[in-house]
C-alpha cells in the first residue's frame, strides 16, 4: 500500500461483491481479494459472504494464521472512510411471554410422553409376574 492510501467510502466498496470483483473491509482497510478468490482455502463463497459490510469480525472469528495475515498486504488497496460505514445494529431478541412451568399444554404433553411408556412397561412386568408358572 502506498504511503498516502486512497480513502474509499462504504457505498463504493459494497458494490464490489462478485467473484470477478470482490473487495473486503477488514480493520479499517480495503482489500481487493479478487485475485485470491480461487486460492482461498475456505472457497470464494466465504469471501463473498463478507462483502457489503465490515468483515473484521468474520476475519477474526476464523483465527487466520500469521502467514494469512502477512498475505493481506498485497491485496490492500486503501482505507475505508469510517464515517460512511453503516451503524452496527445490536440484535435485540423479541420479548417472549413468561413461561409458567406445569401450566401449559406443552408441558403436560411432554410429561405424558414420559409417563405413558413407563406405565406400559409396568403393566407388562406385572402381567409377566402374575402369569408366570412356578
Structure commentary:
- It is found in: Membrane.
- This is Cytochrome b5 isoform A.
- InterPro entries: Cyt_B5-like_heme/steroid-bd, Cyt_B5-like_heme/steroid_sf, Cyt_B5_heme-BS, Cytochrome_b5.
- GO terms for molecular function: heme binding; metal ion binding.
- The chain is an alpha+beta fold and 134 residues long.
- The chain folds into 2 domains: 1-86, Cytochrome b5-like heme/steroid binding domain (Flavocytochrome B2, Chain A, domain 1); 103-133.
- It has 5 helices and 5 strands, in the order βαβββαααβα.
- It has a 5-stranded mixed β-sheet with strand order 1-5-4-3-2.
- A hairpin with a 2-residue loop joins strand 3 (21-26) and strand 4.
- The longest helix has 27 residues, at 105-131.
- It is elongated, with a radius of gyration of 29 Å.
- The chain starts with 6 loop residues before the first strand and ends with a helix.
- The mean pLDDT is 87.
Amino acid at each position: 500500500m502506498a504511503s498516502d492510501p486512497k480513502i474509499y467510502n462504504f457505498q463504493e466498496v459494497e458494490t464490489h461483491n462478485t467473484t470477478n470483483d470482490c473487495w473486503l473491509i477488514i480493520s479499517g482497510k480495503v482489500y481487493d481479494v479478487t485475485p485470491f478468490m480461487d486460492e482461498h482455502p475456505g472457497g470464494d463463497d466465504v469471501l463473498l459472504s463478507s462483502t457489503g459490510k465490515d468483515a473484521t469480525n468474520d476475519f477474526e472469528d476464523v483465527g487466520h494464521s500469521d502467514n494469512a495475515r502477512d498475505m493481506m498486504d498485497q491485496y490492500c488497496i486503501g482505507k475505508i472512510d469510517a464515517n460512511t460505514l453503516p451503524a452496527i445494529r445490536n440484535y435485540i431478541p423479541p420479548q417472549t411471554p413468561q413461561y409458567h412451568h406445569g401450566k401449559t399444554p406443552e408441558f403436560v404433553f411432554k410429561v405424558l410422553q414420559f409417563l405413558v411408556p413407563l406405565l406400559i412397561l409396568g403393566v407388562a412386568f406385572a402381567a409377566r409376574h402374575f402369569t408366570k408358572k412356578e
